Amino acid sequence: MIGRLTGRVIAEDEDGAIVVDVGGVGYEVTTPIGTRARARVDDGVVTLFIHTHVREETFSLFGFATEVDRTAFRTLIGVSSVGPKTAVAVLSALPGAELGRVIARKELARLTSISGIGKKTAERLLLELEGKLTTTDVRASGDTSAAVAARKGEGDKAELLHGALTRMGYRREEADRAVKTLETEIEGRTLAELLREALVILSR
Predict the structure, then answer these.
(1) pTM above 0.85, yes or no
(2) Does 155 map to a domain?
């Protein structure tokens, strides 16, 4: 089983799927949106924590910025009716440590705001994940998700979006570009939706 990959990203799709070149071999890896920006990068070389998913004739790799995120993914797919695709969608909106805090606070609305997560699934997650997830991101001294920025309850959404992007490792000018591109959509979209759109823009 593959547990970690360190190499250069040579291709990336808008949905977070990437190809990592390791010693001339390209590994196709499915990642939550925002993973590449949050992952450790050294001189252009990225390190991802890998979950190798084997089912019947399917062999898939899922990559994560931190071991906390990978653990959250593995815990999620252990929940009834939650498969890898749904788990990736959850972690695209809420990185592992933030998901742990949402579960601890029983924030049902935060879970149902995620695309593909209905009320019944959200309730199941709150019940089955209680006490199973860490609430601390071991890589960062502060929070890195848009949801945390929103929790502060200060500043408008443009400022919150900009702050979330810079906390995720993007340069200020990159965050400026994303916010400017989305300025006509800011009032009508949730912060989580805006962040997903911004990450797509910055991946181009």
Answers:
(1) no
(2) yes
Residue 94 parent element (H or E): none
Same domain, 89 and 117: yes
The Cα–Cα gap between 153 and 128 comes to 29
Q: Answer yes or no: are the C-beta atoms of 63 and 35 closer than 8 Å.
A: yes
Inside any domain, residue 141: no
Position 138 in a domain: no
Integer Cα distance of 179 and 106 in angstroms: 31
Over its length of 204 residues, how does the chain's per-residue pLDDT go in tens digits?
789 999 999 998 877 789 999 999 999 999 998 888 888 888 889 999 999 998 777 789 999 999 999 999 999 999 988 999 999 999 998 999 899 999 999 999 999 999 889 999 999 999 999 999 987 765 533 344 444 444 333 336 787 788 777 767 677 888 888 888 998 888 788 887 888 888 888 877
116: left (phi over 0), alpha (psi -120 to 50) or beta: left
Residue 110: which region, alpha, beta or left (left: phi > 0; alpha: psi -120 to 50)? alpha
> Does residue 134 lie within any of the structural domains?
no
Domain span holding position 198? 146-202
